[in-house]
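Progress report, Aim 2. The chain analyzed during this reporting quarter is listed below.
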Amino acid sequence: MGRPRLYKTKEQRTEAARGYRRKYYERNKERIAAGKQSLRRKKGSTVIEPVIDIENVESEPVQLTKAAAVIDIDNVESTLTTCAQLDKLCNQLANNFLRDRQAVLDALTERLETLVHVEEYLRSANSVHRDHIEGFMCRCKLVVAATEELWCYAAVNEVDEDLVSKYSRRSLLCQTLL
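Predicted structure tokens for the chain:
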């Protein structure tokens, strides 16, 4: 026999979830505040990320060089921006799965290799721009997660209905990056 329910109504579950979030915040207040402060500093910097209208993107998938070497922090920023442009690959995968699957899989594999190089550089970087490096590391992890999600869908030999439904609802990670 299972245990009895703790919360019988939706309101009780909602209130319990609020309590759990409140306790988590109290335990991790300093870390959360430091992260928010880092984001505020990053937003206040002179570096402006380009706004891309994903509805009107007509370009081909961005070609990356094999084993792209990351040299400095500016190169990290441009590489992350390039790797984050997954909308065309996502569209190809959702609409022309059987025809474009292998090409998309190859492109995603190459991007993942590039992102590994970026992550290695960010981990080894000892820079005075520590806040920028932390922001780039966070962005890199998001781009890796979105790329890995698409890679997993592409690695399957048949169309996954979950991919098509998530794509149409715009709930894939790559659709929420920008």
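The chain has seven helices and no strands. The mean pLDDT is 76. These observations will guide the mutagenesis work planned for the next reporting period.
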